[in-house]
Amino acid sequence: MAPVLDATLGGATSNSYVDLAYADAYAANTQWEAEWLAFSVDDRTAALITATTWLETLRWGGKKCTPQTQRLSWPRSGITCDGLTAACTFIPREVETAEVELAFQFAKNPNFMTGSTGNTAAGQVKRQKLDVLEIEYFEDEAGFIRSSGSLLDQVPWLANWLGCWYTNSQYQVRLYRN
To answer: Is the pTM of this model over 0.85?
Structure first.
């Protein structure tokens, strides 16, 4: 079955921030336009949906405009980035651009985030020690510690593209010694 893309702003069934026409127009201004357009419409559509799914794993500033009915994180309100205040009438260009750039990566390699069929334990905790806090991770075949599956661990350049729309808030864990 062919993937169905829904880029309705604030929609209850939306699964993409941009439609295929926007993605194709964006690609027209890149060096990889021919490669992007060589993928089938279904492959480009699936890549856009997958890219949005991964963008949904990020923490965004502000809040959803209609949290009761809005499926995706954007549009949002309550955040200003580089002098532009988010509104319920648009999705920031940086978020749309990030989706298309990620979609191109997924079109080239659908396993780009989930990895290959190699060591699936790579990046997972192998051993943990609490006193003097030590953590050891499994390595992949090449001896590298892979990311834990976080989008920004795998694609660090994305944080710069998203700028101040993305919030890098992290949880703090307090350790007490007895």
So the answer is: no
